[in-house]
Amino acid sequence: MENNTQNFWRQQVGPVQIILGVFLLAYPFFTSDFFTFQIGAYSLLLGTVALSLMMLAGYGGMVSLAQLTVAGFAGYMIAIFGTNSAGVHGLDWPIWILVPLVIFISALFSALIGAIAVRTEGIYTIMITLAIAVAFFYFTRQNYELFNGFNGFAGVSPPSVFGVSWRDPVPFYYLTLSIAATFYFAVLYGSRSTFGLTLQAVRDNPRRMNALGYSVAAIRVFAYFLSGIIAGTAGVMLVWFNGRISPGSIGVDVAIDILVIAVVGGLKRPIGPFIGAIAFVLLENFAIDLIDRERFNTVIGGVFLLIVFLSPDGMLGIWERLRARFTRLGKTPPPVKTPEPEKAE
Question: In the structure, what pLDDT confidence band is assigned to residue 325 with cuts at 50, 70 and 90?
Fold first, then answer.
């Protein structure tokens, strides 16, 4: 086990990873609070939600449109059992009990979604999870006793722990970075674990795995449970980021944005969702300088189609193609040996 862990870190930590890590750690020191909070932290949060989708789709072959629903469920639980300014619920539970409990309940909620969806494949899985996302959206919008209906909950903020206000841009960014990095390496390491390899085998040939005695449904449901931990944690951070939670935060359009982020970045590797999230957040914040706000979805759709057309593996696939091409160009071909003429006897 120790040798496997050492080999894993030896393979993952290289010059590029070290430079990227130093850049992310130093990012708040050379940017404004806007770029630290609205660009850096928000990209990491969306990337973490998309990472939960990447784990299901990339390693399990299950495309779920309900990952933002799980994150929104966690956000509502934080507002209900924590503090809010809406005058509804706000039970003010201690943070050290509230956050782990909410993440666990969100994981169970995700596993319930998985139990409904795992017996289908392809487009049917997408439609079932989309139906669940739509149903949860309208349920929260129409239920005022528990979810406060259309208004939702406002005034939801993280507590001050160890004398630090975690809502401030720099502390919040580092908290988000630590969570994103933890889940990134956990997914990467888990993909090479026994369960990760089993999940990929189920993705490739579920009938053969079932014939070998594996419970395909149970493996898939557990994958949904693990993805729920990731999405639930990101949901807690998102409600603290926005300071509120409402049905508009979990709408169908926002749920589809998570799929777009994951596909644009790349569904085959855990770094892909974060690349897609950065591109999405930059477009969301700066595209309005070039076009009307109402046409933002058109721009996102155009970028999505262009990237998918150029590379089914997303931006990560484009980068790998360019790197392979430049690597081939940089190599000097071996000299061609000309056969010596035979001497006449």
Answer: confident
Angle, vertex CA 71, rays to CA 186 and CA 315, nearest 5: 60
Q: How many CA atoms lie within 13 A of 128 on its CB side?
A: 16
Distances (CA, A) of 34 to 28, 39, 166, 288: 10, 7, 16, 16
d(CA 23, CA 209): 43
Give the Cα separation of 208 and 198 in Å (integer): 12
Average pLDDT over residues 272-291: 85
Give the angle 60-61-63 at the CA atoms, nearest 5°.
110
Token digits of residue 120: 């289908």
How many Cβ atoms sit within 10 Å of the Cβ of residue 264? 27
Contact status, residue 80 vs residue 153, Cβ threshold 8 Å? yes
Percent helix, strand and coil across the chain, each to the nearest 5: 70, 0, 25
Identify the band that residue 293 occupies on the pLDDT scale cut at 50, 70 and 90.
low
Give residue 49's pLDDT: 96
- Left (φ > 0), alpha (ψ -120 to 50) or beta: where does 31 sit? beta
Give yes or no for a contact between 190 and 8, defined as CB atoms under 8 angstroms apart: no
Angle formed by the axes of helices 271-286 and 296-310, to 10°?
Answer: 140
At position 135, the amino acid (one-letter code) is A
Q: Do residues 137 and 250 make contact, with C-beta atoms less than 8 angstroms apart?
A: yes
pTM over 0.85: yes
| Distance, CA of 259 to CA of 273 (rounded, Å) | 9
